[in-house]
Structure formats: C-alpha cells, structure tokens
Amino acid sequence: MGFSATDGGDPSQKLTTPGAGAGLRDVLKSRFLLKLLVAKELKVRYRGSILGLLWSYVKPGVQFIVFYIALGIFLGLERSPGRPDGLPNYAIYLFSGIVLINFFTEALGNASRSIVGNGGLIKKIYLPRQLFPVASVWVSGVHFVPQIVILLAACLFNGWRPGVLQLAAAVAGFLIVGLLATGLGLLFGAVNVYFRDAENLVDMLLMIATWASPVLYSWMMVRDKLGQTFFYFYQLNPITVGVETFHYAFWLPTTDGAEAIPPHLLSLWIPVGLAISGLILLIGQLVFRRLEGRFAQEL
Fold first, then answer.
1. Of residues 78 and 251, which shows the higher confidence score?
2. Are residues 150 and 98 in contact, defined by beta-carbon separation less than 8 angstroms?
C-alpha cells in the first residue's frame, strides 16, 4: 500500500495502491503536477537550443513551403487563370490543415513515449501515471498556439470574417483531434512499456495521418475517385473531420463562399467525430489503467 501523491491530508484517512488510481480524474486533481510536468518538458526540450520556442514557427513554416511548392505550384492544386479547377487561397487551405495535423502527430508521438521516457521518475515515486501522456498533449498545445496565431494573421490579411458557427466548428475540430491524441497516447503509452514495437507502429500511423485526411488535397478528390460508399468510411476518421472543420472555419470565409464543404459536416460528422474520439479516449484510459500496475517493474 502507498499514499497517493494527490491526497495531501492525513495519511490515515485514505490509502491507495500505487498503480490503481482513478484514471483521468487523478489528472484533474493533480493540475499543479501537470503544470510542473509541462514546464519540465518544455525546459528539457529546448535545453541548449538557440531558437527555443521559435522552432514552433520554423518547422511548420518549412513544411508548408515544401508542400505548397510541390503541390500548389508543381501539381496545380492552387487555383490560377490557367488552372481554374484548383483551390482558391490554397496556401490558407494547406496551412490550416498542417497546424492541426502537426498538433496531432507531435501529441501522439510524444505521448506514446512518455511513460518509457519518464521511467526513472516513475520508479522512484508514485504519482498518477496518466499525467505523463496528458502533459505531452499539453506541450503540443503550447506549440500549437504560435502556429494558430500565424494562421489567424494570414486569414485576416485575406479578408477572413468568420461567423459564430465557423468559430464553434474550429473549437469542435480541435477538441476532436485533442481527444483522439490523448486516447491513443494513453493506449500506446501503456502498451509501449511492455512492447517497444508500439513506437514503430505509432511512427507508421503518423506517417499515414497526413495523407489519410484532406490536409494536402480536397475531400472532393476522394469522393470523385473512390465513390460515395468509400467516402463514408473516409469520413469516419476523426482527423478527417477535424481537418475539414478547420477548412470550414479558416479557409472557407476567405473564399467567395462558393466552395463546397462535405455534406452534413456540421449536423452529422462533427458529432460522429466527437463520439469516436470520446470512445477511443475511454478505451485508452481503460487499457492504461489495466496495465499501469506493473509499469515500475517493467521499466
């Protein structure tokens, strides 16, 4: 038996078994510890770095330039007088998808390694293990902020005038992807303690994620090339829904408004995306709680 790090009262009043916590409820009770872990992750990540947090601007900037030149210019996805079937304001379309997919890939990649990476701390003291994957997601959220600021500035420069519905859709899209990253981070973070192959599996999933959702191309290409039946399965990917909501919120108001959005995006697919991400979060937490009892021994 051991004392929970979050009790803070008379030890005789409550005893808990290490590794048998209350799941994400312990994270809510340990908000101060979460804040410390996020600060530690940021400090360790940029230790000895000259640019520091400026890498949050540099990395997506370089990624955007490469994709824009390759796809927007060379492959003709940018609308121009000679290519009327391209996407208007393709730069904003592209970047609004990149900032969200970058948040997901960083959050899941780091969360899946968070338990193993903090093995030394886990073996020394008991604190809610869920804090480590959740802290990784929060660190990714910190890096997301400067990217979204750049996106907002570019949108405003291009006449962005969103309505309440667009802003609500953006929040819903971020929530969908955030819940998904947290759920998968808990799942793979726990499994990775026992089977290190989980890291390689996550790397493959992240490699596919950018291309499995309409970050670089239009959703209409999927529907036209593969048919309506496959398109329904395509829409079941929560990342797809999240990216489409970002396009709806940030890109669409900068166009003439004549561009199409996926059918039933607001009424059907956003609720479906939230439900699927919520289910994955529940599964991830259940698996994590089942496996966390032997983390210290396995590490």
1. 251
2. no
pTM of the model: 0.86
DSSP letters for the chain: -B--TT--S-TTT--B-TT---THHHHHHTHHHHHHHHHHHHHHHTTT-SSGGGHHHHHHHHHHHHHIIIIIIIS--B-BTTBTTSBTTHHHHHHHHHHHHHHHHHHHHHHHHHHHHTHHHHHHS---TTHHHHHHHHHHHHHHHHHHHHHHHHHHHTT----HHHHHHHHHHHHHHHHHHHHHHHHHHHHHHH-THHHHHHHHHHHHHTTTTTTSS-HHHHHHHHHHHHHHHHHT-HHHHHHHHHIIIIIGGGS-S-S---TTIIIIIHHHHHHHHHHHHHHHHHHHHHHGGGHHHH-
Q: How many angstroms separate the CA atoms of 23 and 128, rounded?
A: 8
Flag whether pLDDT at 236 surpasses 50: yes
Name the band, by pLDDT with cuts 50, 70 and 90, for residue 52: low
pLDDT band at 13 (very low <50, low <70, confident <90, very high): very low
Q: How far apart are CA 215 and CA 244, in angstroms?
A: 8
Residues, the chain: 299
Distant-in-sequence, close-in-space partners of 85: CB < 8 Å, separation ≥ 6? 79
In 10 A of CB 146, how many CB atoms? 16
Q: Which of 175, 182, 196 is nearest to 246 (CA)?
A: 175
CB within 8 Å of 259: residues ≥ 6 apart: 87, 88, 252
Percent residues over pLDDT 70 in the chain: 88
User: What pLDDT score does 1 carry?
Assistant: 43
Angle between helices 238-246 and 164-194 (to 10 degrees): 150
As a whole number, mean pLDDT of residues 33-38 equals 86
Residue type, 59: K
Contact 119, 149 (CB under 8 A): no
